[in-house]
User: Fold this.
Amino acid sequence: MTTSIAVTALRKRHIWLETLPDTVSIPALEARQRPAAVKSIEDATLDDIAFAMLGAEAEFNAVGDRLHALRKLYNLARQAGALGSDRAVDVIYEGGR
Assistant:
């Protein structure tokens, strides 16, 4: 799929659009029996973009949740006295070094 002249121009004109995707993934809507779809950014309606943002936000939140859990595990292990080569879960589970 080639990027349209319009999208290329928008990316050049507006720095915050440099990372605008070529396509958007629109999640399925079970209540309306609409399957998931992928559309080119040129063909996406405002509703398509809104639904794509909901999907992207869910992915973003999942990544944030994993990062938070990893950070918490790391901090708990360090507080329990773990060193760099120690296995974090073992040190926390055993109650410290």
